[in-house]
Amino acid sequence: MPPLPRLVHLLRSARAWMALGVLAPIGMLAASGLMLFDLRQDARDKAEQTSKNLLQVLEHDIARNIELYDLSLRAVVDNLKAPGVDRISPELRQLVLFDRAATAQDMGVMLVLDENGSSIIDAGAVPSRNVNNADRAYFQAHKAQANLGLVISEPLVSHLTGARMLVLSRRIDKPDGSFGGIVLGTLNLSYFTRLFSQLDLGRDGAINLYLRDGTRVMRHPYSEADIGVNIAGAPTFEGFLREHNGSFVETSTRDGIERHYTFTRIGDLPLILNVALSTDEIEADWRVKALTIGVIVLMLCGLTIALSLLFGRELRRREVIQAELAKLSLTDALTGLPNRRAFDDAFARASGGARHSGKPLSLLIVDADHFKRFNDRYGHQVGDQVLQGLARCLSDSVHRPHDLVCRVGGEEFAVLLPDTDLVGAFRIAEKVHAEVSALAVGSAGIGAGAVTVSIGLAASVPAATEVTALADLYRLADEALYEAKAGGRNQTHCAKPHDPAITPLKHALRLMR
């Protein structure tokens, strides 16, 4: 079947419409799901971009301030090597060694410690305030190893001010290269608190600053218990160490909240900064939209499916009705046998099949003898019972699925016998006579043998030498029927092809029925 007619036929099918009505909403759900997934990813991408922008600003501010403070420390180291510095007055030496960076906001103290860890020069006091930091890890690190450069300590409590701070320090070498002490400056943690507090990251969002060894320097929102805690080995911190910067989603070991982490290292400093946004808060607006869209789409899809099923059911009902009507149009209402229209269709198919296969095709035309007398004597109701009885007798006489018994009009029946030669057809005719001889209508007092039939038989063998035209098969069987009636009825007569003697009898015998 060509594609277009096949499509038209398919669209007329109730099952096709029902399947389409179910598959279309499923497709809508799939498309909506993909769209919602894209919206969810857009929300995460937007949050990541926002975090990157925040990181860039914060990283620049922290790196710049530490750089400026480190420049002050370098200046102290260099100026201590200047000739005569050790011989000038303490007040003048303080002015030479320390610039105004030492007095900047959030800067704590700036000291020069000797090789024993005792303060000898103080940017904030003359004479130097008495303090010894020989026990500090940064002092011990400089003492043990030269060329460490700038060392940033873990969060400490100042011996002088009692404030939380970071210590930035550099080594001072004696002229012979031996350890001569350190210069240090402290950066109050209030600097980070003030810097981070300007940002609103939501209820569960956070900003963290870590040393590279996993020690937390600062957290926003601020919690004293979080400062100085080491999280090395935690999945989140392992993620920070994998790359210089990036982002990932992980569950925090601190509070069990899943967050989207965006991180970066601050220049060449041993510091890692991250912005962590709660995934629940990132997706909060998306979930509202997803719920709204999802409910609407589900309702529309449910309605579409329901309407499709109802429409499909109506189409199926229509198909059943049409099939029933088609069956009725091919069925004789009184006997339940196929009618003349069905016979014509079946005869055309059987003729075509016989012509192509070369197999025989036989036809019996069966007519009730003196049927008009039954109607006149017993009435049409009894006549109908006789016809119904004849239909049963004929149906009982054939058993092959492709044999067909039809009522072709009035008291006339036809038996179409594909793949059956003349001998086989004659046996069927004899069986019809036997079945009819037992027919009785007890309610009318019609006993067995009262009803008889005459049968005209015609057979066609397309492969034989004398070929009977299939189109003439019905005419020949009909003419044989009239010859059977002319010969005394209750008998079968086999048609002879091209027998012109039979035709003049037809009109007379019609009047005698």
Task: Describe the secondary structure blueprint for this structure.
Elements: H1 3-11, H2 14-80, H3 90-97, E1 107-113, E2 119-122, H4 137-144, E3 151-152, E4 156-157, E5 164-173, E6 179-188, H5 190-196, E7 206-211, E8 216-220, H6 235-242, E9 245-251, E10 258-265, E11 271-278, H7 279-282, H8 284-329, H9 340-357, E12 361-368, H10 371-378, H11 380-397, E13 404-409, E14 412-418, H12 422-437, E15 453-460, H13 473-486, E16 492-494, H14 505-512
Helix pairs in contact: 2-8, 10-11, 11-12, 13-14
Description:
The protein has 513 residues and is an alpha+beta fold. The protein folds into three domains: 81-191, PAS domain (Beta-Lactamase), CATH 3.30.450; 200-282, PAS domain (Beta-Lactamase, 2-Layer Sandwich), CATH 3.30.450.20; 340-512, Reverse transcriptase/Diguanylate cyclase domain (Alpha-Beta Plaits), CATH 3.30.70.270. It has 14 helices and 16 strands. The strands form three sheets. Strands 1, 2, 3, 4, 5 and 6 form a six-stranded antiparallel beta sheet that branches. Strands 8-7-11-10-9 form a five-stranded antiparallel beta sheet, with helices on both faces. Strands 13-14-12-15-16 form a five-stranded mixed beta sheet, with helices on both faces. Helix 2 runs antiparallel to helix 8, helix 11 packs across helix 12 (422-437) and helix 13 crosses helix 14 (505-512). Mean pLDDT is 86; it is low at 464-468 and 498-513.
